[in-house]
Design goal:
Keywords: Coiled coil, Cytoplasm, Cytoskeleton, Repeat, WD repeat. This is POC1 centriolar protein homolog B. Belongs to the WD repeat POC1 family. The structure is a single chain. The chain has 493 residues and is an alpha+beta fold. The protein is 18% helix and 37% strand. The chain has two domains: 350 residues, 7 Propeller (Methylamine Dehydrogenase, Chain H), CATH 2.130.10; 68 residues. The chain contains four helices and 32 strands. The strands form seven sheets. The protein has a five-stranded mixed sheet with strand order 2-3-4-5-31, with no helix packed on it. It has a five-stranded mixed sheet with strand order 6-7-8-9-32, with no helix packed on it. A five-stranded mixed sheet has the order 18-19-20-21-29, with no helix packed on it. The radius of gyration is 25 Å and the shape is globular.
């Protein structure tokens, strides 16, 4: 299989983030790439080299996850500020805010029809939201520790989630019940996703492993141990035949799932790789990491019409669909270790001849006292404070902005600092506000530590209660046996 592949090549690299790149996703039309960062911003990179990039400002803490809607009209982002935002990916940069959870939001993902959004959080819950009606639908609450990732199946009937309780859980969206739990992990489960046909899920762990399960038979199909550090993210090729993974060992690995072996190791990043993502067509993939860069790679694994194939998969709605050719089956033993035959690719990133795009900053200025006029929020009713009777729900931005964004791209390129034009903040005031924000960051970190300690205390109390229950049952059994002995002695007398 590897002999007919075209080796991945580094097509472009994007610089604009000021801190680690934590997440990435391609738009459905393959014209944009979104990335989130620890610098609290979301970047929309236009893949046309002459187009400008957009920096969206609004989140108050690290952006942890980003996902384009199937139509490409919205981009969802999650953050450590406990909110989810839905952005219009153009120069307008308007957003709708979900007050989604009571702790860090680790993952956001649209359903294949774009009607629902699933979020995962450190508050140990997975929540499902209605996108167009802008309302909370339900919560899934059986995880016992932080939930790192949650994804819909291609047909929307299932949700897979994983977390620091070392489990991967499978949920039925109609009954809202956990129908299966996979627990074969030596550490926190960091990422989970379905393959394109929805018959398998892959999950990665902090124990450096990547596992693929057949959800129809609940059997482990493949087990890869090709990284030397924790796997932070992975992505299936649209064909389902290949998978890329990014790790804290600073490499991106490409695995051939049909042959069950590692075929490429990419060394483009200087530091841990936190995010990887294939484009919808499979001809590109992106990686981001602690070196603040987004690298875009080009490859040509297969020549199938993936749009047609995915459309066929979405029509498979029977409870137990027959296997398809693209379903994953093991061709070799379960445990797959690195082989010397894997191709090592060491691109020199600094020599890539691509002009960095001009960046236009849109959204809210974090130091603007009136920030929020482009933000309207909706929350889980169980967490929302009381509101006035006349409150009206928010509405999403009209899709006509897509046409306006195209018109904006025809303008002469130039660096524009919209924030300085809009706000005449004095240096002294800005310095004071920056100091306040730094103090708030320290307070947020302190609260996070307290939350973690409370979680540990809660777990210890649960263990104590379980032990007390066992002791009480033993004492009750002992008392009953003593009563039986005394009764037998009384009858004997």
């Amino acid at each position: 299989m590897a002999s007919v592949l075209e080796d991945p090549t580094l097509a472009r690299h994007f610089k604009g983030h000021k801190d680690a790149v934590t997440c990435a996703d391609f738009s459905p039309n393959n014209k944009q790439l979104a990335s989130g960062s620890s610098d609290k911003t979301l970047m929309i990179w236009n893949l046309n080299p002459k187009s400008r990039a957009f920096r969206f400002v609004g989140h108050q803490d690290i952006v942890t996850s980003v996902h384009f809607s199937p139509s490409g009209e919205l981009v969802a982002s999650g953050s450590r500020d406990k909110t989810v935002r839905l952005w219009t990916p153009n120069i307008k940069g308007e957003s709708t805010m979900f007050k989604a959870h009571t702790a860090t939001v680790r993952s956001v993902s649209f359903s294949a029809d774009g009607q629902r959004l699933v979020t995962a959080s450190d508050d140990k819950s997975v929540k499902v939201w209605g996108v167009h009606r802008q309302k909370f639908i339900y919560s899934l609450n059986q995880h016992t520790n932080w939930v790192r990732c949650a994804r819909f199946s291609p047909d929307g009937r299932l949700v897979a989630s994983c977390g620091d309780d070392r489990t991967v859980r499978l949920w039925d969206t109609s009954t809202r019940l956990c129908i299966n739990t996979f627990t074969d992990y030596g550490g926190p489960a960091t990422f989970v996703d379905f393959n394109s046909s929805g018959t398998c899920i892959a999950s990665s762990g902090a124990d450096n492993t990547l596992k693929i399960w057949d959800i129809r038979t609940n059997k482990l199909l493949q087990h890869y141990q090709v990284h030397s550090a924790a796997i932070n993210s992975f992505s299936f090729h649209p064909s389902g035949n290949y998978l890329i993974s990014g790790s804290s060992d600073s490499t991106v690995k490409i695995v051939d799932l049909l042959e069950g072996r590692l075929i490429y190791t990419l060394h483009g990043h200087k530091g841990p790789v936190l995010a990887v993502a294939f484009s919808r067509e499979g001809d590109l993939f992106a990686s981001g990491g602690c070196d603040c860069q987004v690298l875009m790679w080009k490859t040509n694994f297969d020549a199938l019409n993936y749009r047609e194939m995915l459309s066929r998969h979405r029509k498979r709605v029977t409870p137990d669909p027959p296997p398809h050719l693209s379903d994953i089956f093991p061709r070799s033993p379960h445990l797959h270790l690195p082989h010397d035959s894997a191709v090592q690719i060491n691109p020199v990133v600094a020599d890539v001849h691509s002009v960095h795009p001009h960046v236009v900053e849109v959204g809210e200025d974090p130091f603007d006292l009136g920030a929020g006029r482009h933000t309207r929020g909706i929350t889980d009713p169980s967490e929302r404070p009381s509101t006035s009777a006349g409150h009206q729900p928010a509405t999403f931005t009209d899709t006509r902005h897509r046409e306006e964004a195209v018109e904006e791209e025809d303008l002469e390129p130039g660096v524009t600092d919209l924030q300085e034009e809009r706000f005449g903040t004095s240096p002294a005031l800005r310095s004071t506000l920056e100091h306040i924000v730094q103090q708030l960051d320290i307070l947020t970190q302190t609260v996070a530590v307290l939350e973690e300690r409370l979680t540990l205390t809660e777990d210890k109390l649960r263990d104590c209660l379980d032990n007390q229950t066992v002791i009480l049952e033993q004492m009750q059994q002992r008392d009953e046996s003593h009563k039986e002995i005394r009764g037998a002695e009384g009858r004997a007398v």
